[in-house]
Every structure is written in structure tokens, then in C-alpha cells.
């Protein structure tokens, strides 16, 4: 059974933010939040690296472990999704997530946050596939259409990879072998308790 | 001397009947709107967890171009 993963080849990322924009447009993500963002370290200095970050759909997801209303569930594809009908916006998942993925579009006075929003791996949510309700709450369900997350599909430098973990790991290995260097599969150890050995 | 009911009987429709009919029509309209969106129903537990990924031609093309 295929295990869905993200892999950002940091040696190829040019911080164009197309993944961020594509995601925001595809899912009509509310103002003020992004499901994906690009983080740059050593900006403007030698050795600068950029990494595109979103929910990594962890094995044994910490967000699910701390959720007091158990609104998270992991599909057979190992995509971590959540129900906005159950979410109470407590914010525990935000504190637990090592990648800062959970976002709150309706932060209000007195600590109210509304329903949590995060990357769905373009796999929708617990509503019926392709329904209007699913689109409004969680965005488009590309996985059910036989496609992959749009952020990865439209990455101009092919830095962001998505799909079957074994296949994208082999693609990354090929690249590293060919060019002779690689900065590693960023976040894999934290998210999947494994890494890509080249 | 005539009572309120008698007055309304003469005019054909009294205030309460009018609003009762109005609320009934609103409920029918609401039911029609709900009925028009059957896809809004949540999935069962099995449907939620089922695999959606498949290695379609689209996905194979993605893997292929990423090997360049």
C-alpha cells in the first residue's frame, strides 16, 4: 500500500513561493493564513537554503495524540485529515506540531480561534468526495481525482515532491547520486521516523 | 359587542392563521434547499479512511518528469 509523503529537495528550492500561491488559490484558503510556506535560512548569505513546509502527514501524528476531541484521522494512504465539525479550536495541535502546520483563520478576542485549518494533501475531508461542502471546508480533493497535491505538481524547479514515499525517495536518491550532493530529506526523521539513505 | 375572532372571521384571515401559513411555507422552502444538496452528507468511517491515491497516467507523468 502506497504511503503518501512530501519531500522537499532543498538544493533545488529557489523560494519562488509558487507552491504557497498554488495551494492558496486551489483551496481558496482564507485571508491571513497559508497551508504551506517557504522558510529560508541564512537568507542572503553563502549556504542559503529554502524549504517548502506544510503538514508532513506524520506517522503517529502528534496533533492527533493531543487533540481533546479526537477530530484527526489517518487514511489508508497515511494522509492525516481532520473534521472541522468536531474541532473546537483549542490550539493544542498547533503546540504539538513540529512543523507549525495548524492554522486558525478566525482568531478573535478572548482567545477564540475558530476551526483549525491545515494542509489536506489535496485529499479533502470527511464530507462526501467532490461535494460543495467538502470544497468549502477543506478545499479540492485532487487525490480522489487521480492527481497529486498541486504544490508539488506545479513546482517550477521540481524541488517539492509528493506521492508514494518509496517512489519519491528513489527519485531523490537518483538526483543526489547524479549531482554528488544533497542536504537530506528535510523533516523525514521527525515526521516518518526514517530518512533517505544515499 | 363582537370579539376579536369574530372580527377576523369577517375579514377572511386572522393574524395567527396568516403567520402559521407563513412559517409553514418557510419550512417547505428550507426542506427544498436541504433536499437540493444531497452530497452534503458526511462519509461513513470506512469511506473516510479508504485509499484515494491511485497511480493514474497523471501521477505516472509526474514521477517521470521529476526524474529528469
- Tell me the structural class of chain A: alpha+beta
3D shape of chain B: rod-shaped
Largest sheet of chain A: 2 strands, antiparallel
**Biggest sheet details of chain B:** none
The helicity of chain A comes to 25-40%
Radius of gyration of chain B: 29 Å
Q: What is the largest interface, and how many residues per chain?
A: A-B, 35 and 23 residues
What number of structural domains do the residues of chain A give?
Answer: 1
CATH topology of chain A: Alpha-Beta Plaits
Task: Name the quaternary structure.
Answer: heterodimer
Number of continuous helical runs of chain A? 7
What global shape of chain A is seen? globular
Report mean pLDDT of chain B, rounded to a whole number: 74
What would your notes on this structure say?
The complex is a heterodimer of chains A (198) and B (68). Chain A is α+β, with helices and mostly antiparallel strands and 198 residues long. Chain A has one domain (4-190): 2-Layer Sandwich (Alpha-Beta Plaits). In chain A, 26% of the residues lie in helices and 13% in strands. Chain A is built from 7 helices and 6 strands, in the order E-H-E-E-H-E-E-H-H-H-E-H-H. In chain A, strand 4 and strand 5 form a beta hairpin. Chain A is globular, with a radius of gyration of 17 Å. The model of chain A has no long low-confidence stretch (mean pLDDT 94). Chain B has 68 residues and is an all-alpha fold. Chain B has one domain (4-66). Chain B has 4 helices and no strands. Chain B has helices at 4-11, 15-35, 45-49, 57-66. The longest helix of chain B has 21 residues, at 15-35. Chain B is rod-shaped. The relative contact order of chain B is 0.06. Residues 35-39 of chain B have low confidence and may be disordered. The A-B interface holds A 1-2, 4, 73-77, 81, 85, 123, 126-133, 141, 143-144, 146-148, 152-153, 158, 161, 163-164, 167-168, 171, 174 and B 37, 39-43, 48-56, 58-59, 62-63, 65-68.
Amino acid at each position: 500500500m502506497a504511503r503518501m509523503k512530501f519531500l522537499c529537495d532543498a538544493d533545488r528550492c529557489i523560494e519562488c513561493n509558487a507552491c504557497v500561491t498554488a495551494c492558496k488559490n486551489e483551496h481558496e484558503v482564507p485571508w491571513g493564513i497559508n497551508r504551506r510556506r517557504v522558510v529560508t535560512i541564512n537568507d542572503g548569505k553563502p549556504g542559503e537554503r529554502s524549504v517548502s513546509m506544510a503538514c508532513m502527514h506524520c506517522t503517529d501524528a502528534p496533533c492527533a495524540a493531543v487533540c481533546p476531541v479526537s477530530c484527526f484521522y489517518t487514511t489508508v494512504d497515511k494522509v492525516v485529515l481532520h473534521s472541522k465539525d468536531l474541532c473546537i479550536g483549542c490550539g493544542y495541535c498547533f503546540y504539538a506540531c513540529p512543523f507549525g502546520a495548524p492554522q486558525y483563520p478566525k482568531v478573535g478576542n478572548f482567545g477564540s480561534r475558530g476551526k483549525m485549518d491545515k494542509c489536506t494533501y489535496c485529499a479533502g475531508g470527511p464530507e462526501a468526495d467532490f461535494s460543495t461542502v467538502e470544497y468549502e471546508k477543506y478545499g479540492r480533493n485532487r487525490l480522489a481525482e487521480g492527481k497529486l497535491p498541486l504544490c508539488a505538481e506545479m513546482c517550477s524547479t521540481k524541488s517539492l515532491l509528493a506521492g508514494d514515499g518509496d517512489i519519491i525517495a528513489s527519485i531523490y536518491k537518483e538526483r543526489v547520486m547524479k549531482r554528488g550532493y544533497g542536504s537530506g530529506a528535510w523533516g523525514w526523521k521527525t515526521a516518518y521516523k526514517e530518512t533517505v539513505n544515499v | 359587542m363582537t370579539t376579536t375572532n369574530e372580527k377576523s372571521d369577517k375579514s377572511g384571515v386572522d393574524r395567527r392563521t396568516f403567520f402559521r401559513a407563513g412559517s409553514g411555507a418557510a419550512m417547505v422552502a428550507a426542506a427544498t434547499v436541504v433536499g437540493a444538496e444531497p452530497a452534503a452528507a458526511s462519509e461513513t468511517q470506512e469511506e473516510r479512511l479508504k485509499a484515494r491515491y491511485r497511480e493514474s497516467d497523471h501521477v505516472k507523468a509526474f514521477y517521470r518528469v521529476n526524474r529528469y
